[in-house]
Amino acid sequence: MNSFGSFFRISIFGESHGTSLGVIVDGCPAGLPITSGDFLKDFNRRRSGATGTTPRKEPDVPRIMSGVFNDRTTGAPVTIMFENTNTRSRDYTELRETPRPGHADFVAMKKFGGHEDYRGGGHFSGRLTLAIVAAGVIAKKLISPVKIETRLLEAGGSKNIEEAVKIAVEEQDSIGGIFECRAFNMPVGIC
User: For 11-32, what is each residue's pLDDT tens digit?
Assistant: First the structure.
């Protein structure tokens, strides 16, 4: 599924090693202030370089293509694109024969009958979380003054998150986690 939501609907497009990827946000009211700078804090939080993350470095500069004029939303769908500039597609050739465990390679191959873009995980790559984070930035602006806080409670079944990540990296494995999500400044009467 590439689209999520009802009133605030997002549609993700692109692939990890395609020309670009992005998001279309529909249901955003007119007049919300949006600039490229609004995305920096959240993009920096998902940036590569930390232990257990991809070594791939991308500038992740949002190009607001539609739905914003004079730094305010117009009420039309907001389209944000990101260029892919650092790809090494040849590294993924073997995935045609041996899909990676813990990834969507096999499922994508079966779902799309072998016509999927397998380079870097294609449309199922973690790279596409960039589009989801961009939509989240807009959503957070819409719900202000409500603030959402998340905290990683455990990873790989352990409360020692750094150690769990270290072991997973050493074993070249992936692990899940448990997050806590809290909302502050909620209006009275919402259940």
Answer: 999 888 788 899 999 999 999 9
The rounded distance, in Å, linking the Cα atoms of 34 and 116 is 34
Residue 6: CB partners within 8 Å, gap ≥ 6? none
What residue ranges in the chain does DSSP mark as E strands? 3-4, 9-14, 20-26, 63-66, 68-69, 72-73, 78-83, 147-155, 177-184
Query: For the chain, which residues make up each domain, given as ranges?
Result: 3-144, 148-191
> pTM (2 decimals)?
0.81
CATH code of 3-144, in short, is 3.60.150.10
- Find, among 23, 96, 107, 119, the residue nearest to 64 by Cα: 23
Please write the tens of the pLDDT for every residue from 76-86.
999 999 998 87
